[in-house]
Amino acid sequence: MMNKEFHLHDIVEMKKQHPCGTNAWKIIRMGADIRIKCEGCGHSVMIPRNEFAKKMKKVLVQANTEH
User: Fold this and answer.
1) What is the percent of the chain where pLDDT is above 90?
2) Does any domain span residue 41?
3) Are 13 and 57 in contact (CB under 8 A)?
4) How far is CA 40 from CA 13, 16, 37, 48, 64, in A?
5) Domain assignment present for 6
6) What is the pTM of this model?
7) What's the domain range around 34?
8) DSSP the chain
9) Taking a C-beta distance cutoff of 8 angstroms, is the pair 12, 36 a contact?
10) Whose CA, among 19, 30, 57, 58, lies 20 to 30 Å from 6?
11) Residue 42 CB contacts under 8 Å (≥ 6 apart), including other chains
12) Domain for residue 40, yes or no?
């Protein structure tokens, strides 16, 4: 399996579209579980890290990692 790289505050595309019609999600919390927030309606979902890695398609916008 390809190791997908993602970071906090990245905007990612998931395989399935959200019911509100958008496919862009922002990573707002990372740990054993990952919380993502829909960029369309603001709904947030927490899913296990391994499940997130399977369902994520690609990173759309990388967060600025410099502080």
Assistant:
1) 75
2) yes
3) yes
4) 12, 14, 9, 22, 21
5) no
6) 0.84
7) 11-61
8) -------TT-EEEESSPPTTS--EEEEEEESSEEEEEETTT--EEEEEHHHHHHHEEEEEE------
9) yes
10) 19
11) none
12) yes
Contact predicate 12/59, CB 8 Å: yes
Per-residue confidence at 1, pLDDT binned at 50, 70, 90?
very low
Place of tokens 């296990």: 48
In the structure encoding, which two tokens stand for residue 21, read together? 């019609």
Total domains in the fold of the chain = 1
- Distance between alpha carbon 62 and the CA centroid of its chain, in Å? 11
Looking at residue 42, what is its pLDDT?
95
Residue 4: inside a domain, yes or no? no
User: What is the token pair recorded at 12?
Assistant: 């990612």
